[in-house]
Predict the structure.
Amino acid sequence: MIIIMHRKNTLTPSWPLFLQSNILPLRHLFIYKVLVIFYNKCGDIPFTESRHSYNLRLIPTFRIPKHFLTFYKQSIEFIGPKMYSKIPNIIRKSKSLAIFKRNVKIWLFCNNNVECLLNSII
């Protein structure tokens, strides 16, 4: 669709066209929407305290709920914390929703490969 909008050849790579148009591709848009919905629900909640008295390499910011059904595994309540814990700290510590949205969009445009976020939800 973006290739048709720009009247380019069908063999033209689409990523530069998305950047030029300032439009997120479908995968990036899915991640953007999940992160914004999760930030609206839980973004102002402070980080969870560590359950351990010693330092770990990675302390997740939110507990990932256990799932027993595939239906629940594909819900925002499950996907949101997993994706949110994988974005950089600078974005997580955004003071407002507008700043968070802007930072996430910039980060997604800088990262062409978002498979690590999408693979975490499969």
In short: Confidence is low (pLDDT under 50) at residues 46-52. Residues 26-42 form the longest helix (17 residues). The chain is about 55% helix and 0% strand. Helices lie at 2-5, 15-21, 26-42, 70-73, 76-86, 89-92, 97-110, 115-119.
